[in-house]
Structures are given as C-alpha cells and as structure tokens.
Amino acid sequence: MRVVKKFGGSSVATTEKIKNIAKDIAKNYKHGDEVVIVVSAMGKTTDELIKLAKEISKTPDVRELDSLLSIGEQQSISLLSMALKEEGCKAISLTGAQAGIKTGGVHTKNKIESIKADRIENHLQNGEIVIVAGFQGVNENGDITTLGRGGSDTSAVALAAALKCECEIYTDVTGIYGVDPRVYVNAKKLDKISYEEMMEMANLGAGVMETRAVEIGKKYGVRIYVGQTLGVETGTYICDNSEIIEKKAVTGISINKNVIMVNLENFSAIPKNVATIFNNLAEHSINVDMISQNEVENVKGSIGFTCPLTDEHFLNNSLKDIKKHIPEIELTKRTGVIKISLVGIGMISNFGVAAKVFEVLSDIDAQFYQCTTSEISISLIIKESDAVKVVERLAQVFSI
Amino acid sequence: MRVVKKFGGSSVATTEKIKNIAKDIAKNYKHGDEVVIVVSAMGKTTDELIKLAKEISKTPDVRELDSLLSIGEQQSISLLSMALKEEGCKAISLTGAQAGIKTGGVHTKNKIESIKADRIENHLQNGEIVIVAGFQGVNENGDITTLGRGGSDTSAVALAAALKCECEIYTDVTGIYGVDPRVYVNAKKLDKISYEEMMEMANLGAGVMETRAVEIGKKYGVRIYVGQTLGVETGTYICDNSEIIEKKAVTGISINKNVIMVNLENFSAIPKNVATIFNNLAEHSINVDMISQNEVENVKGSIGFTCPLTDEHFLNNSLKDIKKHIPEIELTKRTGVIKISLVGIGMISNFGVAAKVFEVLSDIDAQFYQCTTSEISISLIIKESDAVKVVERLAQVFSI
C-alpha cells in the first residue's frame, strides 16, 4: 500500500521523538508499504526563526523570510532520514524544491501550483522511504517559498493527490470530535466527516486541520486520516460525503471565542451607505463575518455583523470613519459574546434543525443576538456565560 | 570596484553582530562598489547541528548530514540580507545551489567543480548586494553538498575567481603574523605573504586560512586580503610572489604541538619492509608526516616519522601489526615534542638558512630529534620545553 504520512512539529520536537516515529514508520516499511513522509519543523523552531528575523527588522523582507523559515523543515527531514537509516530502512530526504513542489503567489503565503512527482516515484521504486519537507516549495525564479501557517498539512494532501494515495495526518489529538472535548467532556470522536463539513468546521474556528488542505483533498478525492502520533486509538477519516452512510443532521459544533458583535442602526440602508460601511471596514483590514440585515421600515435599516475580537483596535478606527460619513448612524459594539456553529451535511435534508436549536435556547432561557445560516451550518451569537450550557444541551439533543 | 567579502561564524554570531556588519557593508554599497558577501553559519550553529545528528546516529548518513549542515549558512544569509535592506541597500541572498556553485566528490568533503556566475552577475548589474551561503554547493544529482570545515573561505575565493575580483576574508585576527603572537609577543604582522608560503604555513598548522582556498587563489590569481571584522588596522595580503619585492629568507614560523615522533630501527630497510610499514600505517588511517630515512649500514636501516598525537591510539595498533610482520624491528615513540617549521619563499636563494637554524639551536643548547626540508621550508622536531626559547630566538635572528 502506498501512503503519505504527515507528522507535525510537536511529533518531531526532540531527537528522541524523531527516533520514536522512525521506529513506527519502519514497521510500515518492513511490511512492504510505499511510504512518503511529510514533516514540519521541530517544536517551536519556526517561531524562533521568526523571532530572529524580527530582531533584525520589524518588517523582514518576505523572500528572505521564506528562505529563513524553510530551514526548519530541512532540519527535521535530514534528522528523520538519518533515524530511519538507523532502523535499517532505505530513506532519502527531499526539500520542497527537490520534491518538485512548484508554488505561485506571494512570498510567505504561497500556494502549490503543481507537483512534479517523478523524483519521488523513482525513489519509491528504488525501495526508499521518501521524506519531504512540508510547508515549502520553489517558485518559477528558483526562490524558496513557504505556504503559510499549517502549510505542512497542505503539502501532505497535495503530495497524496499527486501520488494517488491516502494521506495520514498525525497530531496531538486522537481524531476529530463533534465538539471540543475541553468544552464538553462527553464529546464523541467522529469516525468520518465529509470534506464540506470539515471545511466549514475549520473556517468556523475548530482549528484541527488547515482548510486549504481539506479543499485539495476534496478536489482530488484524497481520503485524509487524522489520528494521534504513536497512538493506539483509531482516528477520524475526512472523506467524500457518499462514504458517509448515516448522515446526521448535525455532525459537529464549533465554538469561537474570538468574536465581537457590531450593530449599526437608525440610518438609511440604501446601497450607497451599505457600500460605504463595508468598504471602510475592508480598508481597515477587518475580517467581517456573519452579516445580517433587517429592514425595519421603508427607509431606516439595521445591519449587524461580527469580526474577530483581535481586530477591535482597527474596528474602532473604522467605526469613527463611518460615523463621519453617515453622522446619523447609531453604533453598538457587544463583547462578552461567543459564536457557536452547528455543522452538518444532513442539514440540507433536515428542515427541523433550526427549530430544534431555538427550542434548546428557549428551554434554558439563553438569549441570542444574531443568527446566520449556510446550506450546511447555523451560526449563533450568544452570551459567553451561556456557552457551556448551550453547547452541552445541543450536543445531547443532536447526539454529537 | 567589485569585491567578495567573507565573514566567519564569530562575525555573525548574533543578530546584533549581523546588524553591525550590515552597516559596514552598506558603506561600500553607497560608495558604488559591487559587493558579494559570503557568510558562515552563526557562531556555533554547525557544531550544534552535528550534535543533533550524533544524537540520532553515531555515523549519520553523509548526504543527510550535508543537507542538515547547509541550513546554518542559509540562516545567516537570509538574516544578513534583511539587515542590509534595513540599511537601505538592495540585497538578495542565494544558497550555494542558487549561486551556481557546482561541486563534485564525496558528501561532507566536496570540492567546487565550477561556478556558473550568471545569476550573481545579473543581480550585481541590478544594483543588488549578493549574499552567498558559504561552505555549500549542489552536485549533479541536485543534492546539497558541503565543502568541509573552513569551506566558506574556499567558497569566497572561488567566487572571487569566477567574478574576477579580489577577496577579503574578515576574521577575529588582525592579519597574518610571522609567528603566533600568543607564543612570541613581539611577532610582526605581515603586509604580504605569497600563496606558496601561506599554503606551507597552513599545512604546517598555522590555522588562519584553509589551504584549499589559498590554492584556488594561486591558481586563478585572486588577491586575498585577511583582516579583522570591523577593525581599523590594515591586515595582510596573500598574493603572487612577484608582488613581494623584499623576499625575506624566512617569512614565518609555524608551531605544531599535535605531534608524536616514531623511530624504527635495527631492521633490514629493504623496499619490501619499508612498503610493509607505510602500507600498514595507511591502513590504520594514520596521517604520516616528516619521513626521514638514514641508512646506518649496508643492510640495517633506521626510519623516523611523525604523526598527529591525536592518532596515538591507531598508531599503537599499527605498530603492533608491524612488529608481527618484522619481528626484529625496534620501535621507539617520543611524545613531549613539538614541530616548528620555518617557511620562506626566499629560502630557495638563501643557502645559509639551515646553517643559521642549527647555530641557534647550538647557542641555546636545544636538542633536535628530526629535521626535514622542502624547497621553501625547514621543519624540526624539538623538545616541547625548548619551544618558546627556540621560536623567540629564531624570530629575532630572521626578523619575523
């Protein structure tokens, strides 16, 4: 069997850990599998490199930053290759460039454009384990590029697509849970989750997998397994919807604390004004989410939206600007709130989900400030103090 | 003016030091010079990487070791490039591969085969400072290679040869001295030294410059300047013999404490026996130096040689072997000795040098155990306890 296995930074944080995963990989190898490994930089290496760069410059040149950051993965692939040879395996490490990973876009936020996998195929045919540096590639100028945070997941899934095999992502957690087990102790681990649900969960702040990696998985039909490094428990498969027989109405609930809510009222909600508002927010680089508009009367409007709490400083500046352009507008900001999102591919055919959600809120007398929906999700802004109670009850009701 | 400047590991050991040399380089740049910089890894980075590799394997795979060690220089070039941009310079960092440095030979001990300098030329024409990773290149398989210890000097001089310009080597010391100033406080710094003398000095253990770098300098006529990083004193030029007007009989005295002396006596010094001895020493990887043979009678011979004290363990094994093959042989080992070598291109035309040396030894009643000569050097084995006195007196006699 051919497989791409990816190990994150905490799995290769020390030479001791590297030796342990080498022992584990050696078992696959001796079993006759064709194995490609993708690794991240050891532990906090990337953060330390960024710190060095910041000591030199507040705004380090991005081409140089890419070249600098890429050494973290080059270190871990070499060490892992040495460790695999100690275990009696044939092994070879390849940088992103050597592995044929071509990227485009802007430095520090590159995207994989293509993978020329000939060299990897040759090494596999030669009976070697191929260890590829995650997070990096090479652009058309021959410059080293990086894929941004979480880029090693993307490297792994893209390689699996090019090599037409499954991708296994090894991490600290035992799999993907419907609800964060730190919030709800009875949370169940999912056996399977669809690409669409996982993407929605990732976007909504679940933080287990990089969205881009799941997108590539969906596009090329790569089954992605998420499990614990050296763990014994079976993890979770991210796979095509058609593989999931029993489609639950709600697969997971994501919880996002980094949120602030804004209401704009008592102004003329004509397109010109609405455009002014959102252009201004964009100019201040504010990541606007959950927009809802209610027409109160014929001419007076009310618009609500959320944005990350970490953008509050920019938000304040933007709101001042907006007030200058539309003096009659009334602004209210609400903090101490939390966004919970119910995600489920089954929602498309389960019309009663929203009704059940509101019933739960009513039962426990929890107020909600805003609600938006997509085809496969419902998001609510509630009081932070109500969050645990609401999540627990929803998890029970939907058997998550 | 076009120039290649090389900075060693201690000159770029911290981000603070990197910023300081960036300020200095910026002056050249703003003066309109075309500047290529070669840097080593920061401080002890290479040693730390070797330590990591040794934690994984006692005999790390050499291809992987090369890939691992190369990241040290990749780190320093990126950081220096960022620092130069902070100083308002246009700058770009290039790995060995990106700079077109092609190598051949075996991993960890590669040799530069050719430099395709087109990319560097383009960047220079574009008004950029080009920062090249020392110590590394790429082989015909596209694998990263390193040049062995001191390889950054070699990179710098080879680049200067390809770019047809001078090479400046910046280091901890203010230049090249005729005698180690730690041994003889009145030692004089040389303004100039010929390639041949420098190579002889380096081989004899002076340790300032890598011999290979000087060899390349000689072959391609690259003038090499050795001076102190950010220092104000003028350093030393390594240049062609023809540039040196006043040819001193003795330019320098090198001192080597890492030496053990062996005498083999009372055996038939026929070629077969001599071959047996030196083949055996070679099989035990002993670096034999200063061979002298004296025929005592018609058939009985005596052979003396020296080798590094650090090889003593291998030497003992070899001597046991030799005794098995030639049972009548008598072996004596002498430690507590030191090798001093007088080097001077002027020696060729100064026949009295040896006589003066023996006069000095006689004057201060210093015994010597062995003596060998080359065209431009005389080497002596003396008692370690006599070394300082002998070196001081020789330095005075030859005005070094």
In short:
Chain A is α/β, with parallel strands linked by helices and 400 residues long. Chain A is built from eleven helices and 20 strands. Helices cover 36% and strands 27% of the residues of chain A.
How does this model look, in words?
Two copies of one chain form a homodimer. With 400 residues, chain A is an alpha/beta fold. The first copy, chain A, has a domain at 2-172: Acetylglutamate kinase-like (Carbamate kinase), CATH 3.40.1160. The first copy, chain A, is built from eleven helices and 20 strands. Chain A has helices at residues 15-30, 45-56, 62-86, 118-125, 151-163, 195-203, 211-220, 271-283, 312-325, 353-363, 387-397; strands at 2-7, 34-39, 91-94, 101-104, 111-115, 129-133, 136-138, 144-146, 166-171, 192-194, 224-228, 236-239, 252-256, 260-268, 289-295, 300-307, 330-334, 337-343, 368-374, 377-383. In chain A, the strands form five sheets. In chain A, strands 3-6-2-1-9-11-12-10 form an eight-stranded mixed β-sheet, with helices on both faces. A four-stranded antiparallel β-sheet of chain A has the order 13-18-20-19. Chain A has a four-stranded antiparallel β-sheet with strand order 15-16-14-17, with helices on one face. In chain A, strand 4 (101-104) and strand 5 form a beta hairpin. In chain A, helix 1 (15-30) packs across helix 3, helix 2 runs antiparallel to helix 3 and helix 8 (271-283) runs antiparallel to helix 9. Chain A is globular and about 75 Å long. The two termini of chain A are 33 Å apart. At the A-B interface, helix 1, helix 2 and helix 3 of A face helix 1, helix 2 and helix 3 of B. Chains A, B: GO terms for molecular function: aspartate kinase activity. Chains A, B: Pfam families: AA_kinase, ACT_9. Chains A, B: Residues 1-226 form the Aspartate/glutamate/uridylate kinase domain.
